[in-house]
Amino acid sequence: MNSPTKCENCISNSSGIFCELEGSQLSQVDGHKVLNKYKKGQTLFVQGNHPFGIFCISKGNIKVTKVGADGKESIVRICHGGDVLGHRSLFSDENYTATATAMEDSEVCFIDKKFILKTIEEKPSVALNIINKLSKEMGSAETRLSSYHQKNVRERLAELLIVLSKSHGINDGESRTRIDIRLTREEMATMIGTANETLIRFMSEFKSEGIIEQDGKTIIVTDSEKLSQWANLPF
Amino acid sequence: MNTDKDYIKISKEFISILKELSHTHSYSSKTNLFYAGQTPIVAYLLLEGFIHLTKNKKTISILDAGTLLGFKELMNNEQVDADAYIVKDTKVCFLDKSTIYEIFAKGPNAPLYSYLKDLLQLREKSTT
To answer: Where in the numbering of this chain does the HTH crp-type domain appear (chain A) (predicted)?
Structure first.
């Protein structure tokens, strides 16, 4: 029998839902999990199908997308190491309402429903960690919803860049933040509910104002203060 | 999942027992169950419809009702060497690791215990 990488050696263990478990408790998770590598573009689950467990991301970025009646795909959120996927559908006992796809080569563990429910009953810290993640996701969803109603496209783009620089930002020297995720312009446009052309126009404006720079497909935030002003964030 | 022997056919008697242990689900669209190089996250028992196994985008096998797919790989943490996708409206029931461990924990008198153990041992013998 092959042994997958142990949870205690997972690079995202400290931010995962099992971070408070130790020793034999983590070994139980190891015994029940299935660790898989997903190549860019491979799907973890598909909208409309039945959930039978949760996915814990160890490494890589996974996009969660919804396909509308017109066949257009929009990104609901982007998950990375330490995040969980499929938990909402699992606990609400509904089919998946979105599709999860690897944006790059990723490592993801699957844990079946029976085991996760048993663990939640026995270890309240796991339940609290899931609630914590659900709460943050709900907060982000509420912020995005209100942004669609209250903000214009320029403000929404600035807000998206702030969110991405917080979740995927790498310090790139003095007050410069490199956003370590490759999104197509189309993907970014769907994230702020606008057309491709409009997004490209505003990106050019951000560049000419010295707020961002581009290194190939990578975006670098060069003036985070101005970006916050343009995002019109409530303080 | 390297030989035809690995596509396990389940008898009607065992299918009805397995159906009691798991819910039946129908796939609303063509979906990849797993990709080559991965370990299946559950074992799939086909009740109606088809699962296609492909290598380099070529179909190498079409599995039909009564086939148990991915059981040995799941329990041995082994990687499969083909992609599998399920055809729309195919009905399956799932066997996850916890359910299989529960069957084994009940001991030799539990339904399916000997059957599933034999499947695993057959695999171990064939690989040693």
So the answer is: 151-225
Task: Check CB contact under 8 Å for A115 and B27.
Answer: no
Query: pLDDT tens for residues A95-151?
Result: 999 999 999 999 999 999 999 999 999 999 999 999 999 999 999 999 999 998 999
Q: How many angstroms separate the CA atoms of A210 and A204, rounded?
A: 10
- Beta strands A106-112 and A53-59, pairing class: antiparallel
pLDDT in tens, A4-36: 678 888 888 888 888 888 888 888 999 999 999
**Does residue B5 belong to the interface with chain A, where contact is any CB pair within 8 Å?**
no
Q: Is A42 in Cβ contact with B31 (below 8 Å)?
A: no
Q: How many angstroms away from the CA of B13 is the closest CA of chain A?
A: 25
Query: Residue A2, SS3?
Result: coil
pTM here?
0.88
Helices (H), B34-112: 71-76, 97-105
Closest-CA distance, B122 to chain A, in angstroms, reads: 14
Measured N-to-C along each axis, helices B113-127 and B97-105 cross at an angle, to the nearest 10 degrees, of 110
Domain span including residue B43: 4-127
Report how many domains make up chain B.
Answer: 1
SS3 A141: helix
The CATH number for B100's domain is 2.60.120.10
- Chain B residue nearest residue A101, CA to CA: B32
Q: Do A37 and B37 touch (CB under 8 A)?
A: yes
| Nearest CA-CA distance, residue B18 and chain A, Å | 16
Nearest to A32 among B25, B34, B97 (CB): B97
* Nearest CB neighbour to A114, from listed B27, B38, B98: B98
In chain A, the domains with their CATH numbers are 7-141 (2.60.120.10), 150-231 (1.10.10.10)
